[in-house]
What we know:
Layout: H1 8-20, H2 25-34, H3 40-55, H4 57-65, H5 74-88, H6 94-102, H7 110-125, H8 134-138, H9 142-152, H10 154-163, H11 181-194, E1 201-203, H12 210-216, E2 222-226, H13 229-241, E3 247-251, E4 264-270, H14 285-288, H15 291-308, E5 312-322, H16 331-340, E6 345-347, E7 356-358, E8 361-364, H17 366-369, E9 374-381
Parallel strand pairs: 1-2, 1-4, 2-3, 4-5
Antiparallel strand pairs: 5-9, 6-9, 7-8, 8-9
Helix pairs in contact: 1-2, 1-3, 1-5, 2-3, 3-5, 4-5, 5-6, 5-7, 6-7, 9-10, 11-12, 15-16
The structure holds S-adenosylmethionine.
Amino acid sequence: xxxxxxxxxxxxxxxxxxxxxxxxxxxxxxxxxxxxxxxxxxxxxxxxxxxxxxxxxxxxxxxxxxxxxxxxxxxxxxxxxxxxxxxxxxxxxxxxxxxxxxxxxxxxxxxxxxxxxxxxxxxxxxxxxxxxxxxxxxxxxxxxxxxxxxxxxxxxxxxxxxxxxxxxxxxxxxxxxxxxxxxxxxxxxxxxxxxxxxxxxxxxxxxxxxxxxxxxxxxxxxxxxxxxxxxxxxxxxxxxxxxxxxxxxxxxxxxxxxxxxxxxxxxxxxxxxxxxxxxxxxxxxxxxxxxxxxxxxxxxxxxxxxxxxxxxxxxxxxxxxxxxxxxxxxxxxxxxxxxxxxxxxxxxxxxxxxxxxxxxxxxxxxxxxxxxxxxxxxxxxxx
Length: 383
Ligand SMILES: C[S@@+](CC[C@H](N)C(=O)[O-])C[C@H]1O[C@@H](n2cnc3c(N)ncnc32)[C@H](O)[C@@H]1O
């Protein structure tokens, strides 16, 4: 738009338009950047702007809506969001944010966008913004605030949501695999439980292989199974890249696993979940999640655990983990397993701080250590 030259703002705005049309931001933006010819600094700016404006789009839309009445066409709306984000959240100086963003807009809409962004700049300069409520300020769907507020308590939920507005910083394991520190903590906990328990380990929901490859460093043999064939290929690829010869991969529905009973020293069910503990990871995840997913996923989690338990050998351990914070997928699953897996089963000590006990398992809140949010529960099979 700016005289044919590709700019960081132009790429970010195009990515916002594509995301609005249903494309995944984490796929579309890298694709656009790879053909943009932008240097590293500009790519970083485009990424921060596109992901940030998408994450904070409810807040940005509210700011824009204070001064622009009526429906804006897609490119203008995306540019307005990008402008509002630079002014309110990136603290880009107003003169740069306004003029460079307006330049990315079709000429017929420039006067309107210019006026709106100037008014937002004045609002931001005038002191703390009086947001209509925390859902707008923190930019989450109301149902996410309500769900986590009820499940964690309002204060803890708000702190978790605030923390998940920070972009995730990648952490690299000693073997070179990039994995969030929260997931690494789950891996370490599971590895600790498995230490001294010879025998193969099954990761029933393994893709893309973060925990399978972590556990392979300390276990004689790890089977990584997953229901999605293309995702199983990721597990195989990651194991090969890390030169792990003790990993086998299997395409299998974990609710009907093709394995013999009592054949594993450890079975990890790192289950599909609502992902409300990892909302900082994908900028559009909060807008894609649906409240009705929680019940459906909780019943799938129950089915996976029921199918996994018989595979654990006496003396072995069954571990459940999810990257979410809802009660139905954490405490209620613990209660359900306490009822369904009684008798020969006994809870293992949960991990200590920064994890906090929840039921017989433990919860890692995002604000506790600046990681993704996780829940873990481990139970030993006595006989
Ligand atoms: C949270 S991810 C697993 C992450 C993985 N353990 C890691 O650390 O890299 C959940 C996985 O469960 C898989 N999945 C969903 N339904 C499944 C089922 N019925 N059986 C086995 N895997 C399933 C999904 O394909 C997805 O890869």
